[in-house]
């Protein structure tokens, strides 16, 4: 069994959930998260180091939030976090590539901020209600 963690754009959440359901994997956990990557929270993907006004940025009606560190320290630019969604899916080993490919297919725009996917091994899964373990617990 594997845990697939996908961090995606907020506006791709519904489309991703529907695509996973269509291929037989409706079970997932969804969390709202904030983070930043190589762009350091900049939401202007094509002008990463530019001083262009925000109106030139992507038409995202999101305002990244400053970090606590940035509020407490003098920084040349406020450290920003971009709101994202984090999906967690536990699946049998044999379908990991199928799930990963579907997530990529739905979420790839070719622009900065498309997200990341992480795959981790799961040693044991137990369904609390029935006591079923491992593959039976995740189906």
Task: Please identify, by name, the CATH architecture.
Answer: 2-Layer Sandwich
- Give the total of beta strands: 5
Question: Strand-residue fraction?
Answer: 15-25%
Q: What is the helix fraction of residues, given as a range?
A: 10-25%
The number of distinct structural domains comes to 1
How big is the Rg? Answer: 18 Å
- What would the CATH topology be? Alpha-Beta Plaits
Mean pLDDT: 82
The number of helical runs is: 4
* Oligomer kind: single chain
The run of helices and strands is: EHEEHEHEH
- Class of secondary structure makeup: alpha+beta
| Parts with pLDDT < 50 across at least 5 consecutive residues | 45-53, 55-62
Shape, principal axes of CA atoms: elongated
Sheet having the most strands = 5 strands, antiparallel
Distance between the termini: 11 Å
CATH class (first level) name: Alpha Beta
GO molecular function, one term: ATP binding
Family: Belongs to the P(II) protein family.
InterPro entries: N-reg_PII, N-reg_PII-like_a/b, N-reg_PII/ATP_PRibTrfase_C, N-reg_PII_CS
Protein name: Nitrogen regulatory protein P-II
